[in-house]
Amino acid sequence: MEFRSSVVPTTPFDDQKPGTSGLRKKVTVFQQQNYTENFVQAILDSLRDDLKGSVLILGGDGRYYVKDAAKLIIKMCAANGVKRVIVGHHGLLSTPAVSHIIRKRNATGGIILTASHNPGGPDKDFGIKFNTRNGGPAPDNITTDIFNITVSLESYKIVHDLECDIDAQGDYAYSVDGNEFTVEVIDSVADYVSLMKQIFDFSSLRNLLEGSEGQKPFKVLINSLNGVTGPYVRQIFVKELGASEDGVVNTEPLEDFGGLHPDPNLTYAAELVDALKEGIHDFGAAFDGDGDRNMILGKNAFFVTPSDSLAVLGAHLHHIPYFRTTGVKGFARSMPTAGAIDRVANAVAVNFYEVPTGWKYFGALMDANRLSLCGEESFGTGSDHVREKDGIWAALAWLQIIACEKKSVEELLVSHWRKFGRNFFTRYDYENCDAESCATMMNKLEQIVTSPVYVGTKIIHRNKSYVVKLADNFCYEDPVDGSITARQGIRLLFADGSRIIVRLSGTGSSGATVRIYVDSYEKDENVLLEDAQDFYVCFFLLACIVSFDLLVRNEVVEYQKPFIQYNTASQVVLAPLINIALDVTEIRVHTGRDAPTVIT
Ligand code: G16
């Protein structure tokens, strides 16, 4: 059938600047007349000469509005001269799967429909992200280009009556303005599963999970939080690796995530934490809406901080068949992530990089063959097998290491701390605050810390004192292309290696979210192993102490879920630094909040 494209006049929106990872807004914002159309047209226009004849991958995390947006994007691709759209069945593709398929099919890029870990539903969040030819999130120069196009857009192109059934797999061919346009609706999980089988030794993983040579089955509990990973998890963990049916939960992708907040941390994945506390399972993992974030727990809900997770993986990469083939080129972390991986990089003598928050900064290093493994404190871990972080990959990597080392999660952590020392880390998030006052807070803080006399200042909290060694607003120079990314977060680095970092999130859908990151390093074995030896009693006591400490200072922090903070040891060790951070930022004054929304 012959279709004709139309050019529809539009007027620009002034709020389509992509954040840390794409454009994220309320669904109702995207549903405004021409809002989604404008942003999609800007993405397509940013392809410039590559647009005509291009091949694009399209998929999302199954949240509300994904299907509507996917169908709209197909109509717009048809009208803009795209040659072929490869879309996931029902519009579903995880973010790492999109990255992989872009690379495997040598596509021009991909459009990912997700607001990641933000809640879904008609009055919740939606997002659109563009990934480039390397499979990774568009770098700053491209997102800036997209934004510049949005502010002067006068029309968009669409084929109104082209309806493609994305609920039926198959190849569909159309003629648009005399040119062939095809849509391929693919199995959402097949390509990704076969990639995982190339990276890991599935037969040893199966032996681990089912039990072999007199070993008991290693019981896992995987929680997809009703995000896109559900079908991937069922295929990999149940069908391929023999986990029991009840070893995977919330595996049906739902438009509102079944009311869950699909963010794998101790607060929002409390269901997994509570289940692991029962002591039945040896290993737990949860993933976010689009499948790129992960949280790892050991038996009895032993919490692995993302910074430690990265470091333990780095120290054991040789157990993963993929790296035995590719070699290990280097490690990297985002600037606010605690420096546990730094010491592993030093020990195994590989390149090490510190980049701004945002997975896009890792991509260039991977493309230049300088980087194999990287991670972020925001529950992101990944490798150069794709150009996105990858939740399921991280869980499989942990299981592969456990299968080889024959140690529990906790034993792996304890021996790691013994060898390398331990980084204590915590993050306070103040979500949905007034954007203007938060901007004022950041400017004021920048002025204070960058004043010439600030370095050398001694800051005292009760009996602890810290001397400022370096204070700045982090500026990154990409070692590959020399590009500069400035003002990526206020850093206060102290003489003893402790750090306070403050930045505004780039992934919220409304208002501003302030993130305060605090970390320190401990190598005194008595301190770093004390809580691990008597984990639960100690955590309870430590939690009481920190609450008392905060109370006596008349600073009552109301934890959303007191005592499920399994990393409470960090809260205690870091209490003086946390108080300094709250004071220096004047966070209460600027946000009007007595307590953070989430403590990680
Ligand atoms: C995105 C980026 C990550 C970043 C995270 C948090 O993750 O891909 O690299 O660490 O946002 O960003 P922010 O602190 O600015 O909110 P995701 O999982 O949301 O796509």
UniProtKB/TrEMBL annotation:
Q: What Pfam families would the database entry show?
A: PGM1_C_vert_fung, PGM_PMM_I, PGM_PMM_II, PGM_PMM_III
For this UniProt entry, which segments traverse the membrane? none
Q: Could you give a GO molecular-function term held by this entry?
A: phosphoglucomutase activity
Sequence ranges assigned to domain Alpha-D-phosphohexomutase alpha/beta/alpha in this UniProt record: 16-154, 193-297, 326-420
Q: List required co-factors.
A: Mg(2+)
> Does the keyword field hold Isomerase?
yes
GO CC terms in record: cytosol
Gene3D superfamilies in alphabetical order: Alpha-D-Glucose-1,6-Bisphosphate, subunit A, domain 3, Alpha-D-phosphohexomutase, C-terminal domain
What keywords tag this UniProt record? Carbohydrate metabolism, Glucose metabolism, Isomerase, Magnesium, Metal-binding, Phosphoprotein
Ranges for region Disordered: 1-20
Could you tell me what reaction this enzyme catalyses? Answer: alpha-D-glucose 1-phosphate = alpha-D-glucose 6-phosphate; O-phospho-L-seryl-[protein] + alpha-D-glucose 1-phosphate = alpha-D-glucose 1,6-bisphosphate + L-seryl-[protein]; alpha-D-glucose 1,6-bisphosphate + L-seryl-[protein] = O-phospho-L-seryl-[protein] + alpha-D-glucose 6-phosphate
Q: Which InterPro entries does the record associate with it?
A: A-D-PHexomutase_a/b/a-I, A-D-PHexomutase_a/b/a-I/II/III, A-D-PHexomutase_a/b/a-II, A-D-PHexomutase_a/b/a-III, A-D-PHexomutase_C_sf, A-D-PHexomutase_CS, Alpha-D-phosphohexomutase_SF, PGM
The EC number on file is: 5.4.2.2
Name the domain of life this protein comes from: Eukaryota
Q: Name one GO biological process term.
A: glucose metabolic process
Q: Which NCBIfam families match?
A: PRK07564.1-1
The record's comment on protein family reads: Belongs to the phosphohexose mutase family.
Please state what the protein is called.
phosphoglucomutase (alpha-D-glucose-1,6-bisphosphate-dependent)
Which organism was this protein described from?
Answer: Coptotermes formosanus (Formosan subterranean termite)
Identify the taxonomic lineage of the organism of origin.
Eukaryota, Metazoa, Ecdysozoa, Arthropoda, Hexapoda
